[in-house]
């Protein structure tokens, strides 16, 4: 199953937990993998509190400067590739009785590093 995420900013964090949960069959047990098919976006598991999401964006911006990279001579988005490299393209989540077995404060976060864009997220 796959779904689309639209972002509004170059660096944007979107809670996709409900969309991932909707993709899990009602009788499923095991694991589900959430995967982004892009080299400038990532997936993370963390709390979806709005101030923390802003902090994630600030953290990634501070950790990886926007400019000064060799790849920028090609298409100007090396920072997005490097931020996505830190995040990784996927997360695996336990499933129990058709429900995501996330911790109390855990959410599935899609992190856009080269937006605004429309992206595809796969759930398998």
Task: Describe the SSE topology.
Elements: E1 2-6, E2 12-15, H1 17-22, E3 30-36, E4 41-46, H2 50-63, H3 72-75, H4 78-87, E5 90-96, E6 99-100, E7 107-112, E8 118-123
Antiparallel strand pairs: 1-8, 2-7, 3-5, 3-8, 4-7, 5-6
Structure description:
This protein is α+β, with helices and mostly antiparallel strands. The protein has a five-stranded antiparallel sheet with strand order 1-8-3-5-6. It has a three-stranded antiparallel sheet with strand order 2-7-4. The N and C termini lie close together (7 Å). It has helices at 17-22, 50-63, 72-75, 78-87, and strands spanning 2-6, 12-15, 30-36, 41-46, 90-96, 99-100, 107-112, 118-123. The chain has one domain (2-123): Jelly Rolls (Sandwich), CATH 2.60.120.460. The radius of gyration is 15 Å and the shape is elongated. The relative contact order is 0.39.
Shape: elongated
Kindly state the percentage of residues in helix: 25-40%
The level 1 CATH classification is Mainly Beta
Structural class: alpha+beta
CATH architecture: Sandwich
DSSP, total strands: 8
Query: What is the overall number of helices?
Result: 4
How many domains would you count in the coordinates? 1
Q: Kindly, what is the distance between the CA atoms of the first and last residues, rounded to a whole number of angstroms?
A: 7 Å
The value of Rg in angstroms is 15 Å
Instruction: Write the element-wise H/E pattern from the N-terminal end onward.
Output: EEHEEHHHEEEE
Largest sheet: 5 strands, antiparallel
Low-confidence parts: none
Rounded mean pLDDT is: 97
CATH superfamily: YjbQ-like
CATH topology: Jelly Rolls
| Fraction of residues in β-strands | 25-35%
Strand order of the largest sheet: 1-8-3-5-6
